[in-house]
Specification:
alpha+beta
C-alpha cells in the first residue's frame, strides 16, 4: 500500500512529465524542457560530451578555489601543477581529469600545503576520506562527490599508507557520478575498471552507488529504531534496503552488458549522530538528491531508447519514489523533535544542496547515455530541477500527521 507522501510524489512527477512532454505528431516533443539547445540526442557517443551526469567537459576549464583552472589527462600533469603552483594556496589550485576518460567521472585537486585543517578522518587502506570531508576537499572540482582519496604516488603509497610530508603537496582524486541511490556517509573511493563503453562505465557507477545505498538504509533504520521512531519508518528503511539490493543486481547486469564492472562498495559505519546531523543528511541525500533521482528515473523510463533499460528504470522509478517519500516522512518526524535553530540549519543545508545539484547537472552526459539510457541532458536536467524546486522544495512541507505528532511528544 502506498503512503500518502508516495502518492503525492508520484502524481507530481507524472504531472511534470505531462507538462514537459507532448505527444504531438506521434513523437515525444519536449516543450518546457526543450532539446533545442542540445546536440547530444542525435550525435554519436563521445563527440565532445562528458559521459557523467553532471561531470565537467574534458575540454572546458574548471574554476576552482585558488588559482588557475583547466583540465589535464594524467597524474603527470598534476606534478607540473604542483611544481608551478604558488606556495600554500588555501584550497585546490588545479583540477584535472584523473584518467577516467571513458566517463569524466573522476577529477582531482592539488593541495600544495598538505591536508587542510578541516579533514576529520582518513581511512586506511588506500587513503580514503569520510564523505563529509570529500564534500569540502572536492569543492570547485567535483560538486557532491560520491567519494575521494589521496592519489597513489601523490601522498599515498601503493600499500595505502599516507606518506606525504607535513605541509607537502598532495593530490586528492574526487569521484563524481550521479545515480539514484542514497549515499552513506562512510562510503570510500572504489577502483573502477575501465569500461569498454560510456554506458558500461555509467551503469557500473550507478550499480556501485545502489549497492552502497543498502548500507545507508540499514544505518538509517538502526538509528530510527534506536531513537524510537514510528515502526512504519523503521520497516520502510528495511524495505528500501531490499529494493537497493535488487537495483544493484539489475544495474550490475546492465553494466556487464555494456562492458563495465561494478566494484563492491566499502562503507565505514559512522558513530551515532545527533538528531540534527541525521536530519541534515536526510534533507540533502533524501529530500533533495534522492527525490531528484526519482524524478530522473521517471524521466529515463519514458525516454530510454533501449528497451531493457526502459523496463529497468520503470521499476527503479517506482521504488525510488517510495524511498524519496520515506525521506520526507523522516524529515517531518525529526523536525518535530528539533528546535527552531536546528530547523533553520536544515533549511539552509537543503537550499545549498539544491544549488550544488543545479551546478552538477548543468553538463550533458555522453550522447549514448542520453540516447540509450534516457538520462536528461544538461538543459533538460536543469529544467526538471527548476520544476521540482518550484513545485516541491519551495513550498512548505505538508503538515505532520496526528500520529507523528503524538509519537514525537511521547518518545
Amino acid at each position: 500500500m502506498r503512503s500518502r507522501e508516495e502518492v503525492r510524489l508520484r502524481e507530481l512527477f507524472q504531472r511534470l512529465l505531462l507538462v514537459t512532454v507532448a505527444s504531438s505528431s506521434g513523437a515525444g516533443a519536449v516543450i518546457a524542457c526543450s532539446t533545442a539547445s542540445s546536440s547530444t540526442s542525435s550525435g554519436d557517443a563521445g563527440e565532445g560530451n562528458d559521459a557523467s551526469v553532471g561531470g565537467h567537459d574534458a575540454t572546458t576549464p574548471t574554476p576552482d578555489a585558488g588559482g588557475d583552472a583547466g583540465t589535464m589527462n594524467d597524474a603527470a600533469a598534476a606534478d607540473s601543477a604542483v611544481d608551478a603552483s604558488p606556495s600554500c594556496t588555501p584550497g585546490p589550485i588545479f583540477g584535472y581529469d584523473a584518467g577516467d576518460a571513458a566517463s569524466g567521472c573522476a577529477y582531482a585537486a592539488v593541495y600544495p600545503c598538505g591536508l587542510p585543517s578541516f579533514v576529520t578522518m582518513l581511512y586506511p587502506p588506500a587513503c580514503y576520506f569520510a564523505l563529509r570531508d570529500c564534500a569540502q576537499l572536492c569543492t570547485g572540482v567535483a560538486m557532491n562527490p560520491t567519494d575521494c582519496r589521496v592519489a597513489e604516488g601523490h601522498g599515498c603509497d601503493s600499500t595505502g599508507a599516507f606518506v606525504a610530508p607535513d605541509g607537502g603537496p598532495i593530490v586528492i582524486e574526487c569521484a563524481k557520478c550521479s545515480g539514484v541511490g542514497r549515499r552513506p556517509g562512510g562510503l570510500a573511493r572504489a577502483r573502477f575498471e575501465r569500461a569498454t563503453t560510456a554506458l558500461g562505465d555509467f551503469f557500473a557507477r550507478v550499480a556501485h552507488l545502489e549497492a552502497a545505498s543498502v548500507d545507508a538504509f540499514v544505518a538509517l533504520g538502526d538509528e530510527l529504531g534506536e531513537r524510537g521512531a514510528p515502526r512504519d519508518l523503521v520497516r520502510m528503511a528495511a524495505r528500501c534496503a531490499r529494493d537497493e539490493r535488487r537495483h544493484a543486481r539489475v544495474t550490475s547486469r546492465l553494466a556487464r552488458r555494456f562492458g563495465g564492472t561494478a566494484p563492491a562498495p566499502h562503507v565505514v559505519r559512522m558513530r551515532q549522530r545527533s538528531e540534527t546531523a541525521m536530519a541534515i543528511e536526510n534533507a540533502i541525500e533524501g529530500c533533495v538528491r534522492e527525490t531528484f533521482g526519482a524524478m530522473v528515473a521517471t524521466w529515463q523510463a519514458a525516454h530510454a531508447g533501449d528497451a531493457e533499460i526502459a523496463e529497468v528504470m520503470a521499476r527503479i522509478a517506482i521504488d525510488e519514489t517510495r524511498h524519496a517519500a520515506m525521506a520526507w516522512d523522516v524529515a517531518r518526524w525529526l523536525e518535530l523533535r528539533l528546535d527552531a535553530r536546528a530547523r533553520a540549519r536544515i533549511a539552509a543545508a537543503k537550499r545549498a544542496a539544491i544549488a550544488e545539484l543545479r551546478r552538477e547537472v548543468a553538463s550533458t552526459p555522453d550522447a549514448s547515455i542520453v540516447r540509450e539510457a534516457g538520462v536528461p541532458d544538461g538543459a533538460q536536467a536543469t529544467c526538471l530541477l527548476d520544476a521540482l524546486d518550484a513545485a516541491l522544495w519551495a513550498e512548505p512541507a505538508p503538515e505532520a500527521t496526528t500520529r507523528q505528532r503524538a509519537s514525537a511528544v511521547t518518545s
